[in-house]
Amino acid sequence: MTRAVLGPATSQTPDGSAAVPQDLGTPGGDRPPRLSVVVPTRDEAENVSLLIDRLVPLVAPLDAEILVVDDSDDDTPAVLARAALDAPLPVRLLHRPAHARTGGLSGAVLLGAGHARGDWILVMDADLQHPPTTAAMLAAVAMRHDVDVVIGTRYAGNGSREGLDGPAREVTSSWATRLVKSLFPRRLATVSDPMSGLFAVRRDALRLDRMNPVGFKVLLELLVRHPAARVAEVAYEMAARHAGQSKASLREGMTFLRHLFRLRGQRLIGQIRTGPRALRERLRELGRLVAFGLVGLSGMVVNTAVLWFCYEPAQLHHLLGAAVATQVSTSWNFLLVDNLIYRRTRRAGLPARAVRFFLLNNVLLLLRLPVLQALVWAGVGVLAANAVTLGALFLLRFLVNDRVIYTADERGRRDPVRMLVAVDGTETVPTPSRRRYQYLKYRYDVAGVVTIGSQIRLPELEFFRAQWVAGADVDIAVRVADVGGRGPQRRAAMTQYAEQSVLRYEEQLGRLGANFRIQLGSPIDIHVGPLLARSPHVVYTNVIEALLRFVMVSRGHMLLHSACVTLDGVGVMLSALTDTGKTATVLRLLRDHGGLFLSDDMTIVRPDGVALCFPKPLTISAHTLRAVQAQDLTPQEWRRLQIQSRLHSKGGRSLALALARFNLPIMGINALTQLLVPPPKYSVDRLVPCRMGTSTRVEELFVIERGAPGISDLDPTETLERMIDNTDDAYGFPPFRYLAPSITIDGQGYTQLREREREILAAFLSTVRGRVVSSDCFGWADEIPRLLREERGELRRAAVPSPVWPRWDAHLAGAGGAV
Ligand code: GDD
Ligand code: MN
């Protein structure tokens, strides 16, 4: 977290008078507020008192302070002081005298942000164009989501910019938005209103030292300079100014354009400067440089030939000829460069690439023409002079191509999915098709804690199949339905209808995409589109399990990312980062040490130290393969497994993650991949002959790690944090995870649920001994039993377990320690 102090010019006047905010209203206690509302004002005497009257009751419940940063020459400060007199929350005033108003509106906002004490900063205008109800609601939305910036947008959902003064301002505003978005196509890709004056930002995501206050567009700069910030939007209707006049002027317009081009220029220089670091990458770039040079040479021949033709037979002026020649050779170069050199790395669409390529060459043409003219005056021949100017700019042309136009720009990118929170808009649900029935064919009773009914079979939950659960009684219902609009759209979008507790994910391909829709309530209704319905694994891992987690918590259980077995009657839990070798270790413990299997990926744990089984089919990744014996599978299965395990291993997953950074229908791709090559999932006893346990009291926890062999005790508080982080990583795909914090289950909000989950885990861990076991040769499966035997003496083989009847009667699940 950075709380940089702005330069002395803004934070302090020469006499020091503005450095400390003046306290109006009720001063805050020792505890900082959760929200700081920053309001920039300039000559708003007619508006501030109404603003304060309306805003205070709305933001007070959010645990807020109000911070007014004032650059007025009228009596705004006095009016404010009067209005804030009996405000039940801190109202702070920072007045900047005339000589200290650096950065205008932006400077004021950033100065306010520097003084803010809340976790969230809400920025809004004082003239009531941002209706206080909307602003307060936006802050509330921001505070309950796991995102960094929430923007009030006039250009999406039910937003509108009615309130702008007159059609001229409306047109300017929408064209300016277009211009800005085309200059920063990637950084602003998922933002529809990058110039909004209404937004909230998480204070510790805001790096004030990156910001450079100029003019009106503070949000734009914030978005461009914080490429990794996670953004969501809330649609709103902009109102008309209450009183007084807008401070937007032609001069502000010019400042805006200057600011914009400076931002773009700085970013361009930054892009050109950040070349590849690794030697291999540098060599590759060198290779591309050579290839680019060769293409350039051929282009130079084309260029010279066209110029000759224009100049000699066609008798055109040589500058005009050079311009024509550039268009022809640019086309030639583009075809070659785009198809030969960057065929594999090109990301943006063909038109976007072409526009940038031509733009670059024409900007360079403008630089070349004066030089060409000068050379001609100096007596150099037209063709030769032209060639010299072309050659001189070669390196620049290459760098811009290689590092800007054809760069993936992987570092700190936002997710390409648009996130919109519709606050009062109601969702238009397509009428359910009569062809589809409502019957839930598959029912599951997950360890007697949560019931699920589904129209698609969920292989992960096979163990919990329970036809005796009545369809009407399920906690979570999964149905196949049409989700989303008919037509295609440019990006995938996650929309939340706050009022109806609906969350909808829609992909680019309209209804053909892998869409889903969740409606919270009892039951929780999940609708999946037909494509997604054909990939139950994707539905289960990305959607169902993430919800299951919180329903579990609301019922006093936790779905913990870990494996669990019993060895000689002792409950042993294993935890590891993905791809360490947890599954292989579990399999070997079962095969070589006669363990009972409870879970491999997720274990259900209770505060009393008992773990319940959750035997999902195991995913066999490439390195788990060594724990599987060929004779346990049919030859065909074994051959298929060789391919599957590679595709669905770490490499495969990181490819999927890499793809997720681009504007692609990622869930759809995922679903199709799984359709074509189903992930290698085998129930545990298909892989090793073994028995299953239903519950056990966990006594030992081993965190397995790769590294120099060794065993060390785990610090309990650290264990708690690690297990929580590890579990968080395992759930939901990003856009869903960001919005999920707004969920409410059984009247409990996300924060409460998280709190409760932590308590469950802490209580569970309090009776467990935790240790880290490191090994550099996958030796965990030998080391752990050896340790246990050493400490506990040669334990008798556990008695043959009582028969397992997967019926979760209260007394059975409640019988802690029963195996
Ligand atoms: N402290 C300070 N210093 N405040 C200022 C300054 C300044 O130099 N200039 C304007 N403000 C305050 C105004 O008092 C008001 O509260 C708020 O900033 C917005 O100013 P307006 O003059 O009402 O601007 P606008 O309505 O034309 O523009 C608004 O909408 C734009 C989108 O169309 C602003 O929110 C812009 O940021 C936004 O881009
Ligand atoms: Mn205004």
TrEMBL record:
The keyword Transmembrane applies. It is found in: Membrane. The chain crosses the membrane at residues 289-309, 321-342, 377-396. The keyword Transmembrane helix applies. Keywords: Membrane, Transferase, Transmembrane, Transmembrane helix. Residues 1-34 are annotated as: Disordered. Residues 36-206 form the Glycosyltransferase 2-like domain. Residues 292-405 form the GtrA/DPMS transmembrane domain. GO terms for biological process: polysaccharide biosynthetic process. InterPro entries: Glyco_trans_2-like, Glycosyltransferase_2, GtrA_DPMS_TM, Nucleotide-diphossugar_trans, P-loop_NTPase. It is a multi-pass membrane protein. GO terms for cellular component: membrane. GO terms for molecular function: transferase activity. Belongs to the glycosyltransferase 2 family. This is Glycosyltransferase involved in cell wall bisynthesis.
